[in-house]
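Database export, one record per block. Field names are fixed; values are copied verbatim from the stored entry.
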Amino acid sequence: MKNLVTQSTIAKFLRSGVVLGALAAGTSPAFGQTTSLFGANVYVFDQTMSSASIQATLTSLANEPQFGTNRYAVLFKPGTYSVEAPVGYYEAIAGLGATPNAVTINGFLTPNFGTTATYFPGTNITDTFWRSMENLSFNPITNTAQNAPPNTLQWGVSQAAPLRRIQINGALELTDSYCGNASGGFISDSVITGQVSSCSQQQWYSRDSSFGSWTGSVWNMVFSGVIGAPAQHFPSPSYTTLATTPVSRERPFLYLDNSGNYNVFKPALRTNVSGVSWTGGLGAGTSIPISNFFIATPSNTAGDMNTALASGKNLILTPGIYQLTQPINVTSPNTVVLGMGYATLVPTGGLSALTVADVDGVQVAGLVIDAGLITSPVLFEVGNPAGLNISHQADPITLNDVFFRIGGATAGSANTSLKIDSDNVILDDIWAWRADHGNGVGWTTNTADHGLVVDANDVTALGLFVEHYQKNQVVWNGNGGETIFYQSELPYDVPSQSAWMDGAVNGYSSYAVSSPVKTHMAYGVGVYSYFNLGVNIVDNSAITVPNVAGVTVTDSVSVFLNGSGSITHVVDNAGAAAVKGAGTSYLPFYGGATCTTNCLSVVSSGLVYNRRTQMFSGTLTITNTGSSVANGPYSVELTNLTPGVTLTNGTTVSGLPAVQVIGAGASLAPGQTVSAAVSFSNPSMTVISYTPVVVNQ
């Protein structure tokens, strides 16, 4: 095992005040670089260092390009600092105190840094990803270069850029000074004494925090357990507000104890709470000494890490990119796996990067997982797909700030990014992204079916971002699931409608709850389209769920961003189309009531071509899913039928081709099915698609 550091050795380094690795490397200790504990890309600042040297270091770190290979963690020891500096890609900044107030920044740390010419009105910051701050307090001063408002910290970001455990003694602006386009975002366990302004943010999730006030709304602003959140109102303004968060666990973090020794604090599970966790200091939870961790660098193999994990060690992955020939396997209960500075895992042999057994209390936080060149079936597997799941309600597995990429940084592919096979898992700020730009990008290049598949019960997602996958972005097969905030863009690069069909249905819903599920709740669900190849791509439903009593979708929206095509419905067949000229469609509520009358579902079979008749034929199967007899007449309308294709054995209802399935005077008892044949002429031999809709004539 490499880099296994003892507590006594660390204590000696800290008490001596010497940054040994920096001195050995010939780097001025004023710059704070240390290789002794956490590797070359961890910077530790203390009050003996000048503001000028700290700012110079931070400015140099912020130059990393979007798909660069450097990773950085910046740690401030307890004290007060005067700093005005940028925060760049792959940079995680944190305080080392027991509370945010132990480290005070008089000034600002912001991604929105530089001259006003750089951040002109309308600047696009929708790709300001992969940077974070936690466990700090700010007394903001005016960012004059950005023309920022006084006493305001700016955090204009998009996905994978969380604020956690922060106190801002002033205001917070979630874009730049000119309200440039932004697609965030996530904040938790934080206090902002002034106003939070979202301005142009398309969506944002705030959890377990305290705000002076909030202003701003575009499509999907969601709050749970936030004191000072705006009142529930949907849409215009679009505020989804829950008084408490049903279940949560904050991210583990490094801190220095009173003896100057490093520890990792693992916060306790919280249920039905509002406000921050740290009003009494560290908060409820467990401190783990650094001696109980294997501290890995990219020179370590997965075998090194697995040996340490099997011996009962926790794991810290220091900043860098880890090429893995086998998965990192977490098998012991209550293990902490903590990434620093956006540590990045890449499986090289078509296997998973990380697996977690079906055990209590594991926490995985602060990682980027990139797909490798050889297709992985699953990048991150939680639980046992072949086993009988057991309840972990008292001590669930938690994933905080775990981010996936299929392409973008490097070429790669994976069928599914994250698969959950353990009950009660908490997903807290997850972004799964099939890249729409960068390296190795194309419909047949960075292939990926699903961002998230849930095959377990009572799983909770708090801040779920899943984008551009080629089938359903999310597939939820377990009961008792709950999602609070969902943001998704459908794939941009669909080459043709025929390449993107879910059976006979146009397109794939982004958020799909499977039909056997009986209980599920989702709040604040936004799905957007931007089909950018100039092809008229149609997605029938942004969200699909069983229409049963225990399944509800509250405050959902579909949006036509740009390009071509449309989303026909928001949830199932409910909600208006989102299309050019009518780009936003809101649906405040769907489901939750048992269907008793006129409850007919329809499934269409595949089509068979008859060479003799030169016709295509298939079958519509209609089921009465209600509790009472369905009395005819009923027909099935074929909406969105491919142009040039003609239904030859039907009629017309409301101007649309239709097939009668239950005649006048006929009926269908609960649970019974009836079938009807369909036949089509198709002179051009194009792909036949349509959406079947049952109507009562």
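Remark 1: Residues 1-31 have pLDDT under 50 and may be disordered.
Remark 2: The two ends are 73 Å apart (CA to CA).
End of record.
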